[in-house]
Design brief:
By secondary structure, this protein is an alpha/beta fold. Strands 2-1-3-5-6-4 form a six-stranded mixed sheet, sandwiched between helices. A six-stranded parallel sheet has the order 9-8-7-10-11-12. Strand 8, helix 8 and strand 9 form a beta-alpha-beta unit. Helix 1 packs across helix 10 and helix 5 packs across helix 10. The longest helix is centred in the C-terminal third of the chain and has 16 residues.
Length: 278
């Protein structure tokens, strides 16, 4: 390692599975940016101490994954608008004056994957988001900024969906509802933001949920189709995408926040996809 390399890392627990070092390593190679990116396992109650030490010893920026996005939100000296809205931080950046800015690039990553990589249109469309947890809260502002006709947030606990709709209504037309209210109103784009896919579970969805030519997106990803994407395919949907592009997209936006350079996303997605299926 040369002294010229700026230090970046991802903090999480667990962290062994993290693809961030691979992703940012490819970004650095592409762009010629001199940096080193590592992953660090942080004890559950040690986030602030670990982050302070990282920045005190020359670190320039951090990515934050589960379970520390709220800790990072509290840790930052300043927050971007999208971090404030998300209520969580996945990117910390050391400023020239020594202060730490907290940002959230998750929603940007998802929307850029949907519009740029998949080539799907959000503007003027009826969009359904399944779930009302932190992952969903993080994507609503960028989604509404695409000017869809309507965004509906559906959740088991309707009050949570309604609260999100209330919080984000200044960005566009948004409503909350329960899963039992979805029948009879087809959607052009359905985004699964529940973690149910990982456990092989699925919210109770009506068979008439998908409009003709609809698109279905799962924030989760894997070597095979997620349970939600299987469900969509069985109902005739051919426009299917999982969250691998979102993962790379949020990383690319973090890279841009830190370095002011936009890396190429597509080759990195293809590289990761080939490793998933091998």
């Amino acid at each position: 390692m040369t002294m010229a390399e700026d230090q970046y890392a991802v903090f999480g627990n667990p962290i062994a599975h993290s693809k961030s070092p691979d992703i940012h390593g490819q970004f650095a190679s592409q762009t010629g940016e001199a940096l080193q990116y590592t992953k660090q396992l942080v004890a559950e109650d040690q986030f602030a101490a670990a982050a302070r030490e990282f920045f005190a010893t020359g670190g320039k920026g951090l990515n934050i994954t589960v379970p520390f996005k709220l800790d990072a939100y509290e840790f930052a000296d300043q927050l971007t608008e999208r971090a404030t809205n998300a209520g969580a931080v996945n990117t910390l950046k050391l400023e020239a004056d020594g202060s730490i800015i907290g940002d959230n690039t998750d929603g940007f990553g998802m929307v850029s994957d949907i519009t740029d990589n998949q080539g799907w249109t959000v503007k003027g469309k009826r969009v359904l988001v399944l779930g009302a947890g932190g992952a969903v809260r993080g994507v609503l502002q960028p989604l509404l900024e695409q000017n869809p006709e309507l965004v509906v947030v559906a959740n088991r606990t309707v009050a949570k969906a309604d609260a999100l709709a209330e919080q984000f209504k200044r960005y566009g037309k948004i409503a909350g509802c329960g899963f039992d209210e979805l029948s009879g109103q087809p959607f052009d784009l359905v985004i699964n933001g529940t973690s149910a896919s990982l456990s092989g579970d699925l919210p109770p969805l009506p068979d008439d949920l998908l409009a003709e030519g609809s698109c279905c997106y799962d924030m989760m990803y894997g070597a095979d189709l997620t349970v939600f994407l299987h469900w969509a395919k069985e109902r005739g949907c051919s426009n299917l995408a999982d969250g691998l592009g979102m993962l790379v997209g949020q990383a690319a936006e973090s890279f841009f926040v830190w370095r002011g350079v936009r890396p190429e996303i597509t080759p990195v997605i293809l590289s990761l996809r080939s490793k998933l299926s091998s």
